Amino acid sequence: MKIAFFSAKPYDKTFFNKYNEAHGFELEFWETHLGPHVVNAITEGTEVVCVFVNDKLTAEVIDIMAAKGVKIIALRCAGFNNVNLDRAKEHGIRICRVPAYSPEAVAEHAVAMLLTLNRKTHKAYNRVREQNFSLNGLLGFNLHGRTVGVIGTGKIGKAFCKIMLGFGCKILAYDIFEDETLKKDGVQYLPFVEVLNQSDILSLHCPLTIENHYLINESTITKMKKGVTIINTSRGGLLNTHDVIQALKAGHIAYLGIDVYEQEEKLFFKDLSASIIENDEIQRLMSFPNVLVTGHQAFFTEEALSQIASITLNSIDHLINGSLPTDQSVLLV
Ligand code: NAI
User: Is the CB–ligand 1 distance for residue 174 below 6 Å?
Assistant: First the structure.
């Protein structure tokens, strides 16, 4: 039984080959991302296609996959905004994902971005390498006592809240569903606009949906405190990049940390160090001294990659053998 992997990187091969020893599937790794340009290259006998965040599984792509006999789409990630679920359902293609592999990995990365920005360690690192030990321009601020707004308190948001409570922050949260255990820990749920109004720091942990596209835009930014810090490790489309750049220029947003970017599929997970990047907005963002960009690496820990490989292969094994995975939250269709 053959599984074709798209957007496959050397670390995907390492972890999937290791965990496949228990399954014995035939694994075929493609470096390119999946889209209309390459879907015809899927070889005969491929029953499973394994994809990642920037693979584009449009209706057209799914139609061709179905015609080639693909029976399962395995997302080796949590988010699924890049897949036309309805079309897959029409073809009877099952879709599984990895709903949780290490919420702590992403939450800890959000905290790492915050700690870099509030203490300017990205600047200090470069400065001391030049033997410049001056402190001018490195003045930071304490997290202790600050108000942190968390948008989305699912698995990752919850892990983030717990860390920030440990820092002695006041936590305000907005979510469609309130988490009773977090409330007991001292997290206060408020309407979205109230969270924007009162927070010194905002961290986004909700999925990207049609309804919340550009959740952070000119209008919502004006409702935030002047000098706000925004961290986005969720999905790039939650931020209107143009409006965010204007707010950074005006000083309304004092610090921005992004691990995701709305046009990241042309950039992230690639070495473009010898290329001219045509995307002006990412170049402008990277030119700000108070903006930290990482290339969708929040999930990237040994623990998370082990979980991703093991859960994905177990789900495929169950589906191929006609049984349901023990944890059915892995199934989307
Ligand atoms: P989850 O499903 O456990 O939690 C999401 C929470 O957001 C839920 O409580 C839900 O009620 C809430 N929510 C949904 N729509 C909302 C809205 N409009 N406003 C406020 N809250 C809303 O998901 P999990 O595992 O916590 O992941 C969150 C997001 O993190 C994923 O959707 C994905 O986009 C992103 N992610 C990023 C990674 C990275 O490497 N940067 C890795 C993994 C996930």
Answer: yes
Distance from the first to the final alpha carbon of the chain? 21
10 and 28 together in one domain: yes
Total number of domains in the chain: 2
Q: What are the respective helix, strand and coil percentages of the chain, to the nearest 5?
A: 40, 15, 45
Catalytic (active site) residue 264: yes
Asked if 159 and 201 sit in the same domain, the reply is yes
Burial of 60 (0-12, 13-18, 19+ CB in 10 A): middle
List, in sequence order, every beta strand (DSSP E) within 175-280: 188-189, 201-204, 228-232, 253-258
44 is catalytic: no
The model scores a pTM over 0.70: yes
Active site residue 235: yes
Answer yes or no: do 91 and 177 share one domain: no
Domain enclosing residue 165, as ranges: 103-293
Whether residues 116 and 236 fall in one domain:
yes
The enclosing domain of 253 has a CATH number of 3.40.50.720
Give me the catalytic one of 235, 262, 265, 318: 235
Per-residue pLDDT of the chain (333 residues; tens, 9 = 90+): 999 999 999 999 999 999 999 999 999 999 999 999 999 999 989 999 999 999 999 999 999 999 999 999 999 998 898 999 999 999 999 999 999 999 999 999 999 999 999 999 999 999 999 999 999 999 999 999 999 999 999 999 999 999 999 999 999 999 999 999 999 999 999 999 999 999 999 999 999 999 999 999 999 999 999 999 999 999 999 999 999 999 999 999 999 999 999 999 899 999 999 999 999 999 999 999 999 999 999 999 999 999 999 999 999 999 999 998 888 888 999
Q: How far is the CA of 55 from the centre of ligand 1 (A)?
A: 19
Give me ligand 1 centre to Cα 38, in Å: 30
| Whether residues 305 and 208 fall in one domain | no
User: Does 305 lie in the same domain as 199?
Assistant: no
Residue of minimum CA distance from atom 8 in ligand 1: 154
What does R_g of the chain's alpha carbons equal in angstroms? 21
Looking at the structure, do residues 288 and 323 belong to the same domain, yes or no? no
